[in-house]
Amino acid sequence: MHDIKTRLAEIENEISRRKKLKLNCYNKGDKIHKKQLEFHKCTKRNRWVFGGNRSGKTECGAVETVWLARGIHPYRQNRKNISCWVVSLSNQVQRDVAQQKILSYLDPTWIADVSMLSGKKTSLEYGVIDYITIKNVFGGISKIGFKSCEAGREKFQGTSLDFVWFDEEPPKDIYDECKMRVLDKKGEIFGTMTPLKGLTFIYDEIYLNKHGSDEVWCTFMEWADNPYLDKNEVDEMTSTLSQDSLDSRRYGRFSSSVGLVYPEFDPSVHVIDPFDIPPEWQDIMSIDPGLNNPLSCHWYAVDYDGNVYVVDEHYDKGKDIYWHADKIKQKCQRLNWHTDSFGKYVSLIDSAANQRTLASSKSVAELFCENGITVNTKVNKDVFSGINRVKGYLMSAEGKPRLFIFRHCVNMIREIKSYWWGENDMPKKIDDHSMDELRYYVCSRPEATKQSKQKTTIQKDKDSLLRRLRCK
Fold it and tell me: Does the pLDDT value for residue 23 go beyond 60?
């Protein structure tokens, strides 16, 4: 009986100890970091968190690493014998940031062995760890290796891995090498970083997703997303930083020496999941033609309140008009898009489509018309007025968005994100094909009329009195 009581007491003590483990308290209770959970629940194989300082981005990277290595991830399929790397900018940064975070979430009883680059095993937090092996719940042993970008690309060769966590942005050659390390196991990469280096390759490859990979995903994390930060401290720090510093250090945004043309664009607001639009919402297509450059075509719809929806896109290059016209008509048929009285689809198009070249006896506009698409070349090409009209749809005077883009229109979304001002107060003429035909469409919409204010009784009396005085 005494042995049973002793055993029960030991079990209760162990349960109490486990409840106090930091990992078991992560995002439980009254305060939940929703952006961290969004990251953990994402099933993509190349996930990134762009976050400000103290936004909680490193915490979710460390927890993700421990969950996967231990085999206890609540949102993914778990395996035993996991092999992974944690990549930091330097050994010192590793010790002070990623390593410290991982150790804080590791139960010491899970650790099977530790190899040190410097320091003692008895004081892991004060040394630099080479690797940690931990006990996996499925009976195997998982290995968490720590790497420094200072070592150079050659030190990242040869190993086969299940995943890599980048704590802050790595050099491109190391990033590319790590992608090779997870190739044979169909592994994954995730990163947590504050964008402080401008528009780097991560901006192009992850944020813009210029290759159009279905496995790339990213989110932004700022101070307001972290429920553990004191609001008064946040307000105080915000008041002391410049706008450029706020963009990166609070909001985790990429910044450049020049500004975005459409800073009003917010993917969480303007990018929406597709839905079946009513036939009466269908408006018109808009095309920016191209041969060596991409031809961009989008389908636009308008609801009863005047909100604009970009419901589909065709975007390709290196093809002739016959090929593009066929693809556009196929998409129109899938959308059950309306035709004109002659049975043709209708689109706006750049006025340059009227021009004939020495290589062709017919213009682009004529070729489209002959292939079942009637095009209207009378579009407003004034860049400044067009940009201002688009801005008004992204954020109206009442502070409400009036332009929404279906999520699968990836090329338009990418172009808006990368549309920057250049020299002479003009946008950079790089990758702007969707931006041009978006302006053509928005400028074709009627201007919003100002609603006249209803006169009060007193104002009506004043008007009546003035009329009587004029008659005298």
Answer: yes
Total residue count of the chain as it appears in this document:
472
Distance between CA 430 and CA 419 in Å, rounded? 8
Task: Rounding to the nearest 10 degrees, give the CA dihedral for residues 440, 442, 445, 446.
Answer: -110
- Among 335, 291, 289, 288, smallest CA distance to 311 is for 335
Yes or no: say if 51 and 57 are a contact pair by the CB < 8 Å rule.
Answer: yes
Are 287 and 297 a contacting pair, CB within 8 Å?
yes
Can 32-250 and 272-444 be said to share one CATH topology? no
For 213, the token pair is 């990979």
Domains in the chain: boundaries = 32-250, 272-444
**Mean pLDDT computed over 40-45:** 96
Provide, rounded to the nearest whole percent, the portion of the chain with pLDDT above 90.
Answer: 68
Q: Give the tens place of pLDDT for each residue, 54-86.
A: 899 999 999 999 999 999 999 999 999 999 999
Q: Which fold has domain 32-250?
A: Rossmann fold (3.40.50)
Helix/strand/coil percent split, the chain, to 5: 40, 20, 40
Q: Please enumerate in sequence order all residues whose Cβ is within 8 A of that of 53, keeping only pairs 6 or more positions apart, or say none.
A: 194, 249, 250
C-alpha Rg value of the chain to the nearest Å: 29
CA distance 205 to 217: 10
Q: How far is CA 425 from CA 71, 211, 258, 394, 459, in A?
A: 54, 29, 10, 20, 45
Contact 84, 162 (CB under 8 A): yes
CATH of domain 272-444: 3.30.420.280
CB proximity list for 143: less than 8 A, separation 6 or greater:
69, 82, 83, 84, 131, 132, 133
The whole-angstrom separation of Cα 90 and Cα 74 is 31
pLDDT at 115 over 60: yes
Query: Worst-scoring range by mean pLDDT, 82-91, 178-187, 362-371, 414-423?
Result: 414-423
Q: Which helix (H) or strand (E) holds 294?
A: none
